[in-house]
Amino acid sequence: MHAFIQLMVVAAQTNSRDLAALLSLKNSWQNVPTSWVGTDPCGGWAGIYKCNGSRVINILLTNMNLMGQLSGDIGSLSELQTLDLSSNKQMTGRLPQEIGSLKKLVTLTLTGCSFFGTIPDSLGSLEQLVYLSLNSNKFTGNIPNSFGNLSNLYYLDLTDNQLEGSIPVSDETVPGLDMLLQTKHFHFGKNNLSGTIPPKLFSSNMSLIHVFFDNNNLTGSIPSTLGLVQTLEAVRFDRNSLSGPLPKNLNDLTNVTDLYLSNNNVTGPIPNLTGMNSLSYVDVSNNSFDVSDVPAWISSLQTLTILMMEHTQLQGPIPFDLFRLPHIQTVLLSHNKLNGTLNISTTYAKRIDLQNNTITDFQTTGGYNATILLEGNPFCKKAENIAGSYCSSSSSNSTYSIPPPTICSHVSCSVDQVPNPNCNCVYPYKATLIFRAISNLDLGNTSYYVALEKSLMQTFDSYELPVDSVSLGNPFMDSFGYFGLSLEVFPSGGDRFNQTEMLSLGFVLTNLTYNPPKLFGPFYFIATTYAESNKPLHNGIIIGATIGGSVLLLLSVLAGLYAFHQKKKADRAFQNNPFAHWNANMKNGGFPQLQAARCFSFEELKKSTNNFSEANVVGSGGHGKVFRGTLSTGQLIAIKRARADSLQGGHEFKTEIELLSRVHHKNLVSLVGFCFEQREQILVYEYIQNGSLMDSLSGKSEFRLDWMMRLKVALGTARGLAYLHEHANPPIIHRDIKSSNILLDVSLNAKVADFGLSKPKVDSERAYVTTQVKGTPGYLDPEYYMTQQLTKKSDVYSFGVVMLELITARRPIERGKYIVRVIKNAIDEAKDLYNLHEILDPAIDLGTKLKGLEKFVKLSMRCVEESRAKRPTMSEVVKEIENIMQLAGMTPNIAKSTSTSTSYEEASKGGCHRGYIDDAFDSPSVLQMIKLK
């Protein structure tokens, strides 16, 4: 799930429609994050992530103590892919039908809120939806039939609501859940669903691993079609009103580890489950099976850990081998008619409950450490046994506990604080973990909780979250058969987590990001409201003087605060204007020395584009439009003009000018000049005729790239990045490498563009730059996201994703699938083309021998290693691509490009010092362009 956890912020002026929707949501909510100020959510509002250009892509606001309703304005965020409002208990009201307008939504998580009313049918129109979690709310009404249209759905969780009616399946006119062939998880427990289980619900074409319909009002029998879904691993139909015999083909479910069928009215014989050789947890208690002996096949289940068959009409002696199963921990056979002599010479079990049977004798050698309960048997009526430990009164529902840490018992902390393992008082992040299947867990064994704590820490560490330690406690089994634990996560480096860290913790614990040890089974979590990082507040004024003095003091303070506020406002205005310092220098006759970059007047650029005619538009983006222009000298230029209403991007604008004015390489787009007159923000580049690599791979351009061309594009891009990393002074990290920022000139030479997010690496002592996470979804280095430590290897990761685009022509995230994971799962080095035939771009011409492809794939996968330490440097990448090109029969020109700069000439007009750029690039060799058929 590392790919799924890429939370990123891309600097851009938020789209006006998205801004209006978010402002409306903000006005309808209380307790919004303190960072929700200003009119640019993409520029720093907490929880607004992955702004693609100017459009909002992800909203992640887990456990932010939000209060209010989700209005129909949410439907205006048409590019939204993720909406997570989980653990906001005071989010209430009905889900608006307009949520169905979010056609690109991939993840919708509303766990642990208080939404009510019917689930809108419009959710069924979200065809890109992969993860849908509406559990632990107050939804009523039926499960919408329209859910059957969600053909990409992987996870469906409606647990713990008040849903009613029958389970919807399709017919000739309406869809149904039987159509969800790709879905792995059906979680519908703790509702009021009624009626029978439709046989049509299940088929051999389904991919389900979890089927949970526990704690409902379902009637009738379990259909035999359930046995057709051989991918199943956990099944829960307990606590319903099911009747009739169990289907005989349950025996075909060889992958099922957890089988919950208790508390129903099931009749007929106990089925033979010999074939279910993966079974670990079996609970068929409290049913009306035919009277029978303990089935002999139970002793053949070598993986069995927990056996629960209370109130099941069992009779006769207990098989000797049952207690000798290698993994057995718990055997509950109370309230039956078991008789004869109980013989236990040795066992691995920790708890054996045989209360209220007709056992007359007990023979043992004592070679075990188990709790054995025999109260209510004739054995315990014998005088010599009445006071024995086996016959003492004990409830079959034991309580469980985890010993609390005692090392900090001497520490006294304030309200809401808890001593961490170092005995420092901190504010832990608190949550309750709810497990829906506990598999082979011995609830009284503390070693299992230690293993769970260890796995949590390993997960937090893998994402480099600032977690010092975790603590589990208060284990409980609720009346629904769900197992719960309280969780405390302690911060490191301070007494509390900040807002960003809170959101990261919430993200890790939801959306299937964290996978607990298998013995704990599937889970969800509900977080407790967390104290904000700017608390506690301090008192500013203590009332204690005379009334007259207090008034005077108050007036003085108000005047001071007003003056201070005005000064700060002016300071912020100056700081937010990246050219304020430049303008000041201009008034004094000075100007920053920008190498080889010309300062254009607005009128000059206006004339070159025929008054910025739409006919000259060659592209558009989050900041505005790109125009083709022609200077009076006849030189073609590309003019990137920010929108008139866009002030965001000013710092990026200035950064791009300063960086590009001093770096020169034939694989970097050349900056010709700029203009910032009349509140305009305009960058002027050399004109690149053939658009972006993304255009070529998607088929938007007029030509296609063969294998040799793609290698040359990769090499050119790598050389440009290697120059930035190793020859620029100071080194530069691009931070936004993607196929749309790689342009192709008339000879199809690759040129890296768009340096608006770039960062110079000034500190030579450190390998990283600490900075706010920015980038583009699908390309972002996961270590950079988690640590906020930007390194050269972050560009290497992004370049690796571009390499995968080159061979597949797929976008990094397409239909909810991440290209890196798709390739990793498909690779088989033992097969031709590494088993990637179905994934490679057919336009490469797979009929020809793609020499070097396997080495290219290997190199790309090294670049996208999750650990940056395992990634190569860009200079190493350049050498390897050169070797691949030689292997493919083409000798690359490995002569290094040199930096050049021009002298400065002062212009005589316009108040700008103008530098005229010379052609500083080698003439590239002409590549053959292959036209599309």
TrEMBL record:
Residue ranges annotated for the Protein kinase domain, each copy included: 612-885
One term of GO molecular function: protein serine/threonine kinase activity
Superkingdom in the source lineage: Eukaryota
GO cellular component: membrane
Protein name: non-specific serine/threonine protein kinase
E.C. designation(s): 2.7.11.1
Enzyme's top EC category: transferase
Transmembrane segments: 541-564
Residues binding ATP, per UniProt: 640
Subcellular location: Membrane
